[in-house]
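Self-study notes.
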Amino acid sequence: MADIAEQEPQQDRTSQDLARQIRDHANITLSTSHVSGVNDSATARKNIVDTAEGRRAQRSNYGNAPGGAVDLDVDMLTGMLGLAGTYRFRVSEIAGGSHSANSRHYAGVAFDVDQINGRQVNSNNPDYQTFMQIGRTLGATEVLGPGNVGHDTHVHLAWPRRDLSEKDDSKPTCEGGQPIT
């Protein structure tokens, strides 16, 4: 794990340039649908494509999702690329989907992964625990997965919010998940 920092992109650290790298990365698949089945313009793929093209990422507008758009966080995008240096994975949600009311997804600082190295995330996936630990090493401060209520089918990684005045009193959950107690 000592080499993880070296795997982070060193050239451009703007969200637009990082999103281009993610969009084109062979080890990252970006979901084109939501777990809920709702069809909108806030899928993980669309969030990255919009950011790569200089636009804000759309948020869903159903369930707890607030609608509107958000800038994706540079540290979160850098973390996603850092993980791609070691793993192949599918990002199921970024700013879209319905999560807890004050979810970090809506702030553009979180993403969910439902497949690692071609296998569904669950307690039998041999890679999910190390994936979560590397996420922490790369700066994620909210790291949830199998064994956490509502996260048996995916890993949730979130970085600190940029606006520290914005308080998150919600229990963290992901799309289709129950509140974490």
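Second protein, same conventions, sequence then structure:
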Amino acid sequence: MLSTASSIFRRFIILFLILLGLPLANAKPGPHPPFEITGMVTHNPDGDTIDIQTADRGLVRVRFSGADTPETAQAFWKVARNHLSAVVKDQQTKAWCYKTDKYEREVCHVHVGSLDLCLDLIQRGYGWYARMFSNELTNEQQTAYAAAEEQARTRMIGLWNIADPMPPWECRKLRKAGQKCR
């Protein structure tokens, strides 16, 4: 009798957990009520994506808002990733998140202390100002990111030191079509 009750209870708990997780599993890309997270970066697979371990939300995968760094295997992708890794290492990282992208990453404005990580990457020539998402930025961010990219181009630093660097959005298009990018 105790075994049957235990089995029913276990099934009830499993069903409850499945139902509890359904809203998360069905989460759609797009805007949501903004929230702020703070935590330590546990991993950064590239120059504009990080995993932040938080106390209240667990592990959160974050895509930067406002900068787009080279895709894996493009020129400067490792430089951007390694620079970001060095900047966030052992540092409290704060992110203000406002939407989910199609890969279920939180899209956020990210800072370490007062350092805007997108601005830093763009200033160093490790990424492009993602103008296609400028409507998601403040006027101050739009101005700063555009000026930073122009200065990096003019000074020919980072990826601007190579002839005709391919923007990551063009690389993604080519890869989606089964072609290689540079």
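Instructor comment on the second fold: Strands lie at 30-43, 49-54, 58-64, 67-68, 92-100, 106-112, 115-116, 128-129.
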